Request: fold
Amino acid sequence: MKQLIKRWKKRPKTRQGWIDLYVSYLKRIPERQYFPIFILLSLYFVIPYSEFVVTALIPLYFIFEKQVRWVCNKIPMPDYLRIGGSVIFFLVMIDDYLFYFALISIIVWSAKQVNKNKQEEGELTKPPF
Reply:
C-alpha cells in the first residue's frame, strides 16, 4: 500500500506530464506490434462474448507470434491482397465512422508524439512521416 501511495504522489501534475507518460509507454511497444494490436482490439466489436474470447487470444498471439507469422507467410497470397484484406477487415470491424476517425486521429497523433520525443532524444535519424 505504501508503494501505491508513493507512486500516486509521483504522478504527473500537468497535461503535458500525462502526455509524456503516455508517449513513454508507447515507445516500449515495438512497431511491428502496432497493426496486430489494433486488429485484436477491433475484434471486440464483432465477436460475441469478446471480452472473454479476445482477452484470452491476445496473450496467445503475442506468445506464439513467430509461429503465427510463419504460418501466415506460408499462405501463397500476393502482398496487395494481404494488405488490402487487412485494411478491409479493419474497416469492417470498426463501422462507426466517428469512432473510426477518432481512432485514426489518435494513432497519427501518437505516432507523431513518439517520433517527436525520439527526435528530441536524438534516437531518430530519419524525419517523422
